[in-house]
């Protein structure tokens, strides 16, 4: 059975924090692959209106190139409306019946689990993997496998803000992504 970690998000832009989480979970849980799954419309937050899905996909492709264990799963970009994880996991489990899925979430989402759409059904479809974030509690009654991740405080919103204000984002995201942002004049560049 192929063991696959799924890391969902807006990836607006993808950064080294995403890659660090993916690599640590891959290694710690001895998974075969990590699938980065960009959201179309996450139900819990708004994605940036200024960046097209295709640009987010291209940045993600640039971020993961060179790592054969990292893939992109576009299932949520192919659907319209809010992306509910339970619907996505039903489809993935049907398409890939020989796979075991591990859904990676940060402590902010662990706190939010009781509010997830059809959470009781979802926990039957996928194993959640929680990664710590210092400002959030990771206590929950739901079955979660925890993976310690080295602290690296970076977020897509922080990067967008830095880019808009002309500050450096070097060492926060891959150089090829920085070049892409400049070439496409994203985030107010």
Task: Annotate the secondary structure layout.
Elements: E1 2-9, H1 16-28, E2 33-38, H2 53-64, E3 70-72, H3 85-95, E4 99-106, H4 107-112, H5 119-125, E5 127-131, E6 144-147, H6 156-164, H7 175-184
Parallel strand pairs: 1-2, 1-4, 2-3, 4-5, 5-6
Summarize the structure.
With 189 residues, the chain is of the alpha/beta class. The chain has helices spanning 16-28, 53-64, 85-95, 107-112, 119-125, 156-164, 175-184, and strands at residues 2-9, 33-38, 70-72, 99-106, 127-131, 144-147.
Describe this structure in words.
- The structure is a single chain.
- Helix content is 36%, strand content 18%.
- With 189 residues, it is an alpha/beta fold.
- It has one domain: HUPs (Rossmann fold, 3-Layer(aba) Sandwich), CATH 3.40.50.620.
- The chain has a 6-stranded parallel sheet.
- Strand 1 (2-9), helix 1 and strand 2 (33-38) form a beta-alpha-beta unit.
- Helix 2 (53-64) packs antiparallel against helix 7 and helix 3 (85-95) packs parallel to helix 5 (119-125).
- The mean pLDDT is 91.
């Amino acid at each position: 059975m192929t063991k696959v970690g799924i890391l969902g998000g807006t990836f607006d832009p993808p950064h080294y924090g995403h890659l660090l989480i993916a690599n640590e979970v891959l290694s710690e849980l001895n998974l075969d692959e990590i699938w980065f799954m960009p959201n179309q419309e996450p139900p819990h937050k708004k994605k940036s209106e200024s960046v097209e899905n295709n640009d987010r996909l291209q940045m993600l492709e640039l971020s993961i190139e060179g790592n054969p264990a990292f893939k992109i799963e576009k299932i949520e970009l192919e659907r319209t409306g809010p992306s509910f994880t339970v619907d996505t996991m039903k489809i993935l489990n049907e398409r890939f019946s020989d796979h075991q899925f591990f859904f990676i979430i940060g402590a902010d989402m662990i706190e939010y689990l009781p509010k997830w759409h059809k959470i009781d059904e979802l926990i039957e479809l996928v194993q959640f993997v929680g990664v710590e974030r210092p400002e959030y509690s990771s206590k929950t009654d739901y079955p979660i496998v925890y993976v310690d991740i080295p602290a690296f405080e970076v977020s897509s919103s922080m990067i967008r803000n830095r880019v808009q204000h002309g500050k450096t984002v070097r060492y926060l995201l891959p150089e090829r992504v920085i070049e892409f942002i400049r070439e496409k004049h994203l985030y107010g560049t």
